[in-house]
């Protein structure tokens, strides 16, 4: 792991938000470090945008603290906000101006941003070739990148993006992912929200999973995955005898409805006789020994890590992500 990960850029502690009579956010706590891409994953209505609006001081938390580079977003707004670049919901751009003119417009609102800095951010988001065209002629992906260019103008330490890949096609998503990764490699802390598991899994170092305004888990994506139940698919002969033996082992659970835990494409590759179990790696060897000792032929043993989606289902006991 990157050694500059230790420096905390964003610290969120026990943040809650009540709007009207409704508690929207309950006791949310997490940190984002320098050089890391932190994912904020949750279904529609989970509280992602509400949390982000508090991070950038568009609304105030009801309680709790938010610090950016050590500055309290509520008490030291100016110093804190100086370190944040963000796109919340959709970036607002003037479509009758060129990309460059839009950036000049935003540059005038902050001190110390010259033509050279504008040229630098255009270069980072790779819009050089189209920057002097009117924004009305841009694709959605180009508009998103212009939004990021604007967010980067003030040389922030923290970039906050609310669902940056919304509406993009697979190529646009891939491009976006590449340059977010590049920005993080250069030391930026990036906070990205998404309701798409595959997106977060590909992009992020760590993730907070949010549902119903509560953070269910925070951790490295890989660690969250390896710490959860995993599934083993068995091809045994004779299958019925094998299944009987497996179901008699106290450390092995037979999954009677594999379609509820496995992806469709995994299921498609399985034979009709395949048996799916939930069993730890340590116990799998013992199970194999028992099967072999009973004369059952073990044709295939295949371990599958759950996807983030299965993880989410385990945590929320079935609430769907989409
Ligand atoms: N101003 C408001 N007044 C009342 N309720 C609100 C307000 N803003 C948000 N909410 C409610 O708070 C919850 C969280 O909304 P939020 O927009 O933060 O979710 P989200 O995770 O960003 O969802 P999405 O994926 O759809 O963008 C929702 O139930 C929403 O209806
Ligand atoms: Mg939202």
From TrEMBL:
According to the record, the segments passing through the membrane are none
InterPro entries attached to this UniProt entry: AAA+_ATPase, ABC_transporter-like_ATP-bd, ABC_transporter-like_CS, P-loop_NTPase
What superkingdom does the record give?
Bacteria
SMART domains according to UniProt: AAA
Give the matching SUPFAM superfamilies.
P-loop containing nucleoside triphosphate hydrolases (SSF52540)
What GO MF annotations does this protein's record show? ATP binding
Name assigned to this protein: ABC-2 type transport system ATP-binding protein
């Amino acid at each position: 792991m990157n050694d500059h990960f230790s420096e905390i850029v964003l610290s969120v502690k026990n943040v809650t938000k009540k709007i009207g009579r409704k508690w929207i956010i309950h006791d949310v706590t997490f940190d984002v470090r320098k050089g890391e891409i932190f994912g904020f994953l949750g279904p529609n209505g989970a509280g992602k945008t509400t949390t982000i609006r508090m991070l950038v001081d568009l609304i105030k938390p009801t309680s709790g603290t938010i610090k950016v580079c050590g500055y309290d977003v509520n008490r030291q707004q100016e110093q804190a906000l100086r370190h944040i670049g963000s796109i919340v919901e959709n970036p607002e751009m003037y479509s009758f101006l060129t990309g460059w003119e839009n950036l000049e417009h935003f540059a005038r609102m902050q001190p110390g941003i010259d033509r050279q800095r504008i040229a630098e951010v255009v270069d980072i988001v790779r819009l050089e070739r189209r920057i002097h065209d009117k924004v009305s002629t841009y694709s959605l992906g180009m508009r998103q990148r212009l939004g990021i260019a604007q967010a980067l103008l003030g040389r922030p330490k923290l970039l906050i993006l609310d669902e940056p890949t919304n509406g993009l096609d697979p190529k646009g998503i891939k491009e976006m992912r590449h340059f977010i990764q590049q920005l993080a490699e250069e030391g930026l802390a990036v906070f990205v929200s998404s309701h798409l598991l595959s997106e977060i899994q590909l992009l992020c170092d760590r993730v907070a999973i949010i549902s119903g305004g509560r953070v269910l888990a925070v951790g490295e994506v890989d660690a969250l995955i390896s710490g959860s139940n995993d599934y083993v698919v068995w091809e045994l002969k004779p299958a019925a005898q094998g299944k009987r033996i497996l179901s008699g082992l106290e450390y092995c659970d037979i999954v009677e409805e594999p379609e509820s835990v496995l992806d469709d494409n995994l299921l498609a590759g399985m034979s009709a006789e395949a048996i799916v179990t939930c069993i730890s790696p340590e116990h799998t060897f013992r199970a194999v020994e028992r099967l072999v000792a009973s004369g059952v032929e073990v044709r295939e043993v295949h371990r599958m890590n759950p996807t983030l989606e299965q993880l989410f289902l385990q945590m929320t006991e079935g609430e769907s992500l989409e």
